[in-house]
Amino acid sequence: MVHGFQRGQIAFTVAVLFIFSVVVSGCDVPVVDDGLPPIYTVSSFFHKLPDGSEVTVFYPKVASGSEHFPIIIFSGGWNLARFSYQETCRRIAEAGYIVISRFYPTLGYFAIGLTLIDEHINQVQNIIDWCTLENMRAGSLLYDIVEPEKIGLIGHSFGGECTLAAAVADPRIGAAVSLDLSRANQETGFGIVGDVRATKAAVMYIVAGKGGYCSGLLESLEPLFDYTPAPTIEVTINDAGHMDFIERIVDTGLFGYVLCPEGTLPPEFVRAVARRYYIPWFDVYLKGKNTEARYFDGDVSEEDERSGLVTIRKNLP
User: Fold this and answer.
1) Residue 277 falls within a domain, yes or no?
2) CA-wise closest residue to 156 among 105, 102, 111
3) What is the DSSP letter of 133?
4) Which CATH number covers residue 116?
5) Alpha carbon distance 301, 288 (integer Å)
6) In this structure, are residues 157 and 208 in contact, taking their beta carbons and an 8 Å threshold?
């Protein structure tokens, strides 16, 4: 893959996104053209953390010292396997990021009735520290290709809560994206998310318009966007469902279809639309590529709004 490949200048319409292809290399997950051509060839490896949980690391294949990439940590839905979001992580890495997909300590949410959010935050912080050390360790696959001072987080559902909680707790986080976790209750201190008013990160909320219970779309809850400091944005994909962000449903994920209404858009299409917003968000707030703001605050997003595909609220500089 040629580095620095320039993205097309034409605003991609809804029709373009319905162009399906099949991923090669033995993977049978269909991919939709999101208008963001891959820039890097990506490889991956597994690593076991001190707490016994494993991560999958996706990284651009470049020579040590030739280029350096921000860190992105991905947190999946409650107790879902990393395999359920593999293509999502790979596509982010192809845009020029070190992507670490993590799995949760214990069952991810409860330990004798108590939430484990502190353990999730600690795990995220430990991954950042580990990645920083790997950047300095000769012989590591990440040796001298990491920009450890540029860190982003992204998560789906409960992983969105973990993402926001870590972004509140750790000022090193420069950008965060929540995939369909966008509401909480201020009266309870915003729940396990913490006080989002304190975050230093640029936060993007991507909301499934038909996400139902799993999205936290309850009348007693409030949009977190309303309390998040600039720069922040809320992108609602109007006919998307909560489960559309998952590539493969295994184990506990099956219960989501019982609890949450399905959207009316093809899931691959929803994931492509989401990518077309959150990858440019990371590009702007982690890489300083301000021209990419057109995808979420310019001609591309304006076309999406006109078509009725999305509804957007912004609080941008």
Assistant:
1) yes
2) 102
3) H
4) 3.40.50.1820
5) 19
6) no
In a domain, 133, yes or no: yes
Omega within 30 of 0 (cis) for the link into 231:
yes
- Of 45, 181, 147, 26, nearest in space to 100 by CA: 45
| Closest listed residue to residue 96, CA positions, set 170, 48, 37, 137 | 37
The pTM assigned to this predicted structure is 0.85
Number of domains in the chain: 1
Residue 191: domain span: 14-315
Q: What whole-number distance in Å separates Cα of residue 297 and Cα of residue 243?
A: 26
Residue 5 lies in a domain: no
pLDDT in tens, the chain (317 residues): 334 333 333 333 333 333 333 332 333 344 456 788 899 999 999 999 877 778 999 999 999 999 999 999 999 877 666 777 889 999 999 999 999 998 765 544 444 444 578 888 999 999 999 999 999 999 999 999 999 999 999 999 888 989 999 999 999 999 999 998 877 767 666 778 889 999 999 999 999 988 766 665 555 567 899 999 999 999 999 999 888 998 876 555 455 566 676 788 999 999 999 999 999 999 999 999 999 999 999 999 999 999 999 999 999 98
Q: What does residue 298 show for φ and ψ, rounded to 5 degrees?
A: -170, -150
Residue 9 falls inside a structural domain: no
Alpha-carbon Rg for the chain, nearest whole angstrom, is: 18
What distance lies between CA 99 and its chain's CA centroid?
10
